[in-house]
C-alpha cells in the first residue's frame, strides 16, 4: 500500500530524506497550480515551488504528529509567497498580464473556449489578492471551507460568505472585461 | 425560504465538496422562484467555467533535480564536516607538537562562492574596468542564481584585467586581492563593480580604493600595504597569462562546467536558461548511467 503523505513527511522529519522525492512528485503540480492561478506567472511559480520544498526540508521538524500534511504545506506555501511578494513587490502587480500557456492551447482547442479562459484568468488577476486566494483555494485546490478556514485563521462560515462575495465580484469583472472586448471589436 | 437566504446558500452548493447544508429547502425555493433559479444556474455555470482555466503542465524535473542536488549537498556537507573535524583534531595535535609549518602563498587566486562539489561550476573571467562587466550587474545575477539553486552551483571569479585598454583594471584587481588578504574579497569585488564611476579612468584611483576599503571596514594603513604588494600583482598577471593560454581573450567570459558561453549571457534569464538546460542534461546522463 502507498504510504500516506503524513507517513512520508514523518519519515523525512526523522531523517529519511530519500522520501522527500515522493512528496515532491505528489504535490509539485498542485503547488505550481496554486501559485500560477494567483500570479499568472509560470517562471515565478516554478521558483516558488522550489522554495516551498526547500522550506519544508529546512523546517521539517515543525511537522508534528498531529499536523495535517496539506495544511502544513499550504501554510509554508503562503509564507513563501508573502516573503517573495515583499522581496519583489514591483513584480507582483495584480494587473499582470497572464501568460497562459498549455498543451491544451494547441490548434485543436476551441478558440472561443480559449478566449473565455484568458478572460477569466485576467478577471481573476484583477480580483483583490485576498479574494483571489480564497477562490483559488476553494475552486482550484479543492479545499473544503473548513480547511481554508483553518489555513487563513477564520471560521468556515465566514469562508463561505467570502467565497460567495468573491465570485460575485469576479463575475462582475469578467462581464466588464467581456464588454471591453466587445467594444474593441 | 426568503430570496436573500437562498442566495446566501448558493455558495454551499457550488461544489460537491462544499455541500454541507440541507438542500431540500433551497431546491424547493428554486423550483418556485425563477429569479433565484436563474442566479443559481448562472453561478454554477460560472463556477464550472472557472474550473476550466488551463494551467501549464509542470513536470518539475528541473526543480526536482535542483532539490535532489541540494539534498545530496547536505549529505556531502555532513561528510565534509566529519572530515573537517578530523582535520581540526589533527591540526590540534600538530600545533601541540610544534610542527606547524608557515603557510606559503596560495598558488591559485581562487575566489569561490557556492559549494565545492556542486554539480554545476560557473567560472567568470572579469575585468573591473570593462563596462559590460559592471554595467550588466553580473554580481547581482550571481546572487540570485546562488539563491535560486542552493547547493547546485559553485561560482568562481578569476581576474582577467585587459591592461592594454583599461589602465585601472590591474590596480582594481589588486585592490580586490588586497581586501581578500584581510578576508574581504567579495565585499571589495562588489564595491568596485558598484562604484566604478568613482575610480574607472581616474588617475587617483588608488585613493578611491583606500576609501572603498575603509567603507567596507578595513584598516586603510594595513590595506595600503597589501595594495602595493608586488607578489599579488605578479600572481594576478600569471593567472591572466594562464587564462590567455587556455583561450580566454575577452571579458566577461563565462564557463559553465568548462564550456564557454558564447555569446556571454547578459540577463539573469540567460544564465537561468543555460543552467536549467545543463541540469536537465545532468539528470539524463545520470539516468543513463550504471545502476
- What's the main sheet of chain B like? 5 strands, mixed
Q: Report the oligomer.
A: heterodimer
Spans of chain B of 5+ residues with little confidence (pLDDT < 50)?
A: 98-107
**Structural class assignment of chain B:** alpha+beta
Order of helices and strands of chain B: HHHHEEHHEHHHHHHEEH
Task: Provide the helix percentage of chain A.
Answer: over 70%
The pLDDT mean of chain B sits at: 80
- From the spread of the alpha carbons, the general shape of chain A counts as globular
Beta-strand percentage of chain B?
5-15%
The average pLDDT of chain A is: 81
Distance between the termini of chain A: 57 Å
For the termini of chain B, the CA-CA separation is: 68 Å
What overall form of chain B do the CA principal axes indicate?
Answer: elongated
Alpha carbon gyration radius of chain A: 18 Å
Separate helix tally of chain B: 13
* SS-based class of chain A: mainly alpha
**Order of neighbouring strands in the sheet with most strands of chain B:** 1-3-2-4-5
Strand content of chain A: under 5%
Largest interface: A-B, 47 and 36 residues
Overview of this protein structure:
The complex is a heterodimer of chains A (185) and B (291). By secondary structure, chain A is mainly α. Chain A has helices at 5-13, 20-39, 42-58, 69-87, 111-126, 129-140, 145-152, 156-184. Residues 90-110 of chain A have low confidence and may be disordered. Chain B has 291 residues and is of the alpha+beta class. The longest helix of chain B is centred in the first third of the chain and has 37 residues, at 61-97. Chain B is elongated, with a radius of gyration of 30 Å. The termini of chain B are far apart. The A-B interface holds A 17, 20-21, 24-25, 28-29, 32-33, 36-37, 42, 45-47, 49-50, 53-54, 57, 100-105, 113, 116-117, 120-121, 124, 135, 138-140, 142, 144-145, 160-161, 163-164, 167, 170-171, 174 and B 8, 10-12, 14-15, 17-18, 20, 42-43, 46-47, 49-58, 60, 62-64, 66-68, 70-71, 74-75, 148, 150.
Amino acid at each position: 500500500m502507498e504510504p500516506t503523505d503524513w507517513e512520508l513527511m514523518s519519515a523525512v522529519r526523522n531523517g529519511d530524506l530519500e522520501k522527500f522525492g515522493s512528496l515532491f512528485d505528489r504535490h509539485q503540480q498542485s503547488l505550481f497550480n496554486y501559485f500560477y492561478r494567483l500570479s499568472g506567472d509560470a517562471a515565478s511559480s516554478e521558483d516558488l515551488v522550489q522554495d516551498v520544498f526547500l522550506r519544508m526540508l529546512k523546517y521539517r521538524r515543525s511537522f508534528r504528529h498531529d499536523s495535517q500534511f496539506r495544511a502544513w504545506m499550504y501554510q509554508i506555501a503562503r509564507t513563501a509567497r508573502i516573503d517573495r511578494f515583499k522581496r519583489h513587490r514591483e513584480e507582483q502587480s495584480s494587473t499582470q498580464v497572464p501568460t497562459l500557456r498549455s498543451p491544451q492551447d494547441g490548434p485543436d482547442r476551441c478558440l472561443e473556449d480559449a478566449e473565455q479562459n484568458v478572460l477569466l484568468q485576467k478577471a481573476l488577476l484583477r480580483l483583490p489578492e485576498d479574494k483571489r486566494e480564497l477562490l483559488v483555494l476553494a475552486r482550484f485546490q479543492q479545499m473544503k471551507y473548513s480547511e481554508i478556514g483553518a489555513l487563513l485563521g477564520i471560521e468556515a462560515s465566514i469562508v463561505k460568505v467570502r467565497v460567495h462575495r468573491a465570485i460575485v465580484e469576479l463575475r462582475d469583472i469578467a462581464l466588464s472585461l467581456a464588454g471591453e472586448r466587445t467594444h474593441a471589436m | 425560504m426568503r430570496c436573500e437566504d437562498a442566495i446566501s446558500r448558493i455558495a454551499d452548493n457550488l461544489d460537491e465538496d462544499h455541500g454541507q447544508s440541507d438542500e431540500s429547502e433551497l431546491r424547493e425555493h428554486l423550483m418556485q422562484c425563477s429569479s433565484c433559479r436563474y442566479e443559481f444556474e448562472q453561478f454554477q455555470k460560472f463556477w464550472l467555467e472557472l474550473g476550466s482555466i488551463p494551467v501549464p503542465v509542470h513536470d518539475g524535473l528541473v526543480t526536482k533535480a535542483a532539490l535532489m542536488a541540494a539534498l545530496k549537498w547536505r549529505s556531502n556537507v555532513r561528510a565534509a564536516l566529519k572530515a573537517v573535524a578530523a582535520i581540526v583534531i589533527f591540526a590540534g595535535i600538530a600545533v601541540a607538537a610544534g610542527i606547524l609549518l608557515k603557510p606559503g602563498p596560495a598558488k591559485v587566486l581562487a575566489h569561490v562562492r557556492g559549494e565545492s562539489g556542486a554539480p554545476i561550476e560557473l567560472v567568470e573571467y572579469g575585468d573591473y574596468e570593462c563596462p559590460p562587466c559592471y554595467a550588466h550587474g553580473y554580481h547581482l545575477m550571481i546572487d540570485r542564481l546562488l539563491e535560486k539553486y542552493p547547493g547546485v552551483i559553485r561560482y568562481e571569479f578569476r581576474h582577467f584585467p585587459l591592461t592594454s585598454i583599461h589602465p585601472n583594471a590591474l590596480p582594481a584587481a589588486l585592490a580586490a586581492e588586497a581586501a581578500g588578504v584581510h578576508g574581504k574579497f567579495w565585499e571589495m569585488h562588489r564595491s568596485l563593480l558598484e562604484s566604478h564611476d568613482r575610480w574607472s579612468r581616474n588617475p587617483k584611483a588608488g585613493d578611491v580604493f583606500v576609501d572603498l576599503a575603509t567603507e567596507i571596514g578595513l584598516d586603510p594603513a594595513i590595506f595600503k600595504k597589501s595594495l602595493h604588494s608586488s607578489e599579488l600583482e605578479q600572481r594576478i598577471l600569471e593567472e591572466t597569462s594562464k587564462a590567455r593560454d587556455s583561450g580566454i581573450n575577452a571579458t566577461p567570459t563565462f564557463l559553465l562546467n568548462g564550456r564557454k558561453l558564447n555569446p556571454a549571457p547578459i540577463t539573469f534569464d540567460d544564465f537561468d536558461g543555460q543552467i536549467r538546460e545543463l541540469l536537465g542534461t545532468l539528470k539524463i546522463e545520470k539516468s543513463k548511467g550504471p545502476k
